Amino acid sequence: MSDLVLQNIGKTYSNGYQAIPSIDLTIEEGEFIVLVGPSGCGKSTLLRMVAGLEGISQGELLIKGDQVNNKEPADRDIAMVFQNYALYPHMTVYDNMAYGLKNRGVAKAEIATKVSAVAQMLGLEELLTRRPKQLSGGQRQRVAMGRAMVRDPKVFLFDEPLSNLDAKLRVQMRVEIRELQRKLGTTTLYVTHDQVEAMTLADRLVVLNKGHAEQIGTPMELYLRPASTFVAEFIGSPSMNLIPSRVEQGKLQLSVDIQLDCPHVSAQSVMFGIRPEHVDISPLDQADVPFIVKAVEALGAETLVHGVLQLGDGNTPAFIVRVAGHHHFEGGETLGLTLPSQAWHLFDAQTTKRIEA
Amino acid sequence: MIENRPWLTVCSHLVLLLGVFIVALPVWVALVASTHPSSAFGSGSIPMWFGDQALANWQQALVGKEGQASDLLRMTVNSLIMALGITFGKILISLLSAYAIVFFRFPFRSAAFWVIFFTLMLPVEVRIVPTYEVVANLDLLNSYTGLTLPLIASATATFLFRQCFMSIPGELVEAARIDGAGPIRFFFDILLPLSRTNIAALFVILFIYGWNQYLWPLIVTTDDAYYTLVMSVKRMLSVSDGDIAWNQVMVSTLLAMIPPVLVVIGMQKLFVKGLVETEK
Amino acid sequence: MSVYFPQKYLPYLLLLPQLLVTAVFFLWPAGQAVEQAFYQEDAFGLSREFVGLDNFIELFTSPEYFASLLTTMVFSFSVAFLGLAVALWLAVMADRVIRGAMVYQTLLIWPYAVAPALAGVLWWILFDPSMGPVALALDAIGLDWNHFVNGDQAMILVVISATWKQISYNFLFFLAGLQAIPRSLLEAAAIDGAGPSKRFWGIVFPLLSPTTFFLLVVNLVYAFFDTFGVIDATTQGGPGQSTTTMVYKVFNDGFVGLDLGSSAAQSVVLMVIVALMTVIQFRYIERKVQY
């Protein structure tokens, strides 16, 4: 049985604003689903609707087959980890973790067993008598997760849990969350705006844009076959290069001068996309298109070259090239680029949807 | 200090000491006056140094003179009942109403808020006669209820708690709801512990406010079983034959001011916090 | 915050005590005052008749009422000005001294806890014409002090008593305001060649102006309404009417003079004044929120 089902779920606020028109999503048991998108895309609203902290305007929400639309958050058998951890400042770590169990009338001895088991799993045994104020950011994060885990819920909900940690800790906690989730096998819904976090954690990703799901799929599906320009730009760093162009008579026309073979697509105006890492630098006379270097970011393992394509007639769209290893380029230098056709992405200029070759 | 100018610092200390002296002067005189026999107040300046009647005067006030027990104890108890009644009453009803206003959404919420806000505009001194009549109609004259109840509605305390509650992160409420805490549990388990210092600070301010009530007890009590310390001083001053027993007046004055002054000095931090917060 | 408890009736239950007390002891009396202001009642409360605006007209044409208005103004602004000036001076000094600032704070703030009536009694004994040391000292330098006879002197006595109690409050707020001024600002000014007094008037005082304005309003409200005890315990509005403020007059006309119609009309006038002051105070709070 599917663990968590969202059927035609929508949210309209009382002032008439439609935050989420309609979303369908079926999540299997033990799956790690990440909701990702820019701020204001409705990802947190959706999560909070699942939690029961926001009302559901339309559709059905099923947890393990039960319709829970109108159930109180506490009765949905979910647990949530908040962005700011939301630890009770006046309670010890132990009491923070035990509070939900206490309210459910769990016996004291059982609470103690559960809390200490989770504390051990998270390495919190030494901290059980401390208060949140006496903990570091990473420790608080762990307590927040522990509070969710002791309840052994059907679904974990995470609302940008790592955004208040520094970069190094974020990576470490990311790995830890993934491992824990695998070990516990609890179905998880995770909200983030950080695409790296999304890619590394998710079994499947839901890319949200203005309240609707642009694409649902595994990280690699999204990377290799983005369904729209929005997903194409959102997934991958630096973003995919997108250049408005036309396809006519089997040729991709980046400009009057620069035309590339493109046999399978019929005539229309398109967005031509190619990822910075899929572009090759080649001698100017063998290249598809000339490129003028504006700025170089040498990161050691890779070099990011920012510049513009020379398409003729003063048409100079911005373009980024990513080259493995360390290379030296001069600002103002002209390079030749080849754009291998297997790395192309073509999108309909009007609908922004992907055109399958 | 920006520049090092020792004489400026010395000057500052002198000014401050002068300030402390002037502020303390009347209490010093009162203390000295309370140690002299009443005959010392007939002619010429009241003495500026202690007399020898300290024991007798204070004993008379505390224990009573021959054949007449002191009513100090009763008045102190009355003052305490009034001060604590007002304090607890105000804190309780303000906590509840602020809780309703911040953590619930319901029709007429802002109407309720404005009704409470309106009380800011109606200090008891302003509407003293009709309030007296209402209390009289309710048959509450000469009762502890009449002394306290009309004074416990307070917009200031409600606003303070509202401010304090609004600073509690929404995520905490959400976490509590997910943890299965309803509004009552949340109030006792989370909200009250988190508002502890605010409640304590307000307690200090309101205790002083309640203890120092003067006009209200003066008009709602005619039975001396309900007299309070502060108003009793006034009654000692308006004796008909004009001979004021200054030594006794001073003892009573000092006794009436000791409890709130001790509270302020003993809980200075909370007091300062309470003052600053209630005016936010 | 966006999360609320979903219970429908609980909030009304929570609000009930406060609203009940407010309705019975605030709104009802206030309404009665408004109603009564349009009636004339005989001294025994046996009959009353509707007189329209007569009570107000009588009030606003009565020289006594204007005298009390003037008295209130003189009293309130004297208390506010004196209290602010002395407190600011002391706070600046306390801010200057590094050692002992907290000790001075303790020694200066306790009068806040003294009831206004007791403050009046304490200063009365200092100024008592026959035995007060200050009064006798004034007599010695040729100033004949008797606040039971001389209205101006009675006013000075109540102003001093009322101010004495309020200095502590002003002092605390000024000290907090001063301590909130960044040191670096004063250091920059010192490097620019501004001496202590230039720094005070050029930087500190303007930066304190929100605090000063706030305290001015609070002090005026205090002088208007919270000083009843001071006046009642010392001068009882006398000699003559020289220390009868508007609040004192409401009480006096109502309870002593038993002129309920006039007292009610005065209550209504005072309510309008408080409403205006509250609006000013609220404006200030709003502005503070914006910063």
From TrEMBL, chain A:
GO MF term list: ABC-type transporter activity; ATP binding; ATP hydrolysis activity
SUPFAM superfamilies, A to Z: MOP-like, P-loop containing nucleoside triphosphate hydrolases
Cellular component annotations (GO), alphabetically ordered: ATP-binding cassette (ABC) transporter complex, substrate-binding subunit-containing
Keyword vocabulary terms for this entry: ATP-binding, Cell inner membrane, Cell membrane, Membrane, Nucleotide-binding, Sugar transport, Translocase, Transport
Coiled-coil stretches noted in the UniProt entry, renumbered to this chain: none
GO biological process assignments: carbohydrate transport; glycerol-3-phosphate transmembrane transport; glycerophosphodiester transmembrane transport
Name listed for the protein in its UniProt record: Carbohydrate ABC transporter ATP-binding protein, CUT1 family (TC 3.A.1.1.-)
Organism annotation: Marinomonas fungiae
UniProtKB/TrEMBL annotation, chain B:
Cellular compartments per GO CC: plasma membrane
UniProt keyword terms in alphabetical order: Cell inner membrane, Cell membrane, Membrane, Transmembrane, Transmembrane helix, Transport
Entry coiled-coil feature ranges: none
Signal peptide positions (record): none
Entry keyword Transmembrane helix: yes
Domain ABC transmembrane type-1: 76-267
UniProt subcellular location: Cell inner membrane; Cell membrane
Membrane protein topology class: Multi-pass membrane protein
Record-linked Pfam families: BPD_transp_1
Family: Belongs to the binding-protein-dependent transport system permease family.
Complex and partners: The complex is composed of two ATP-binding proteins (UgpC), two transmembrane proteins (UgpA and UgpE) and a solute-binding protein (UgpB).
Protein name per Swiss-Prot or TrEMBL: sn-glycerol-3-phosphate transport system permease protein UgpE
Source organism of this protein record: Marinomonas fungiae
Automatic annotation (TrEMBL), chain C:
Cellular component terms per the entry's GO annotation: plasma membrane
Highest taxon listed in the record's lineage: Bacteria
Ranges where the ABC transmembrane type-1 domain occurs: 69-281
Membrane topology: Multi-pass membrane protein
Pfam families assigned: BPD_transp_1
Chief place of localization: membrane
Cellular localization per UniProt: Cell inner membrane; Cell membrane
Gene Ontology terms describing biological process: transmembrane transport
Stated family: Belongs to the binding-protein-dependent transport system permease family. UgpAE subfamily.
PANTHER family in UniProt: BLL4140 PROTEIN (PTHR43227), SN-GLYCEROL-3-PHOSPHATE TRANSPORT SYSTEM PERMEASE PROTEIN UGPA (PTHR43227:SF9)
Binding partners and assembly: The complex is composed of two ATP-binding proteins (UgpC), two transmembrane proteins (UgpA and UgpE) and a solute-binding protein (UgpB).
Name the record gives this protein: sn-glycerol-3-phosphate transport system permease protein UgpA
UniProt organism field: Marinomonas fungiae
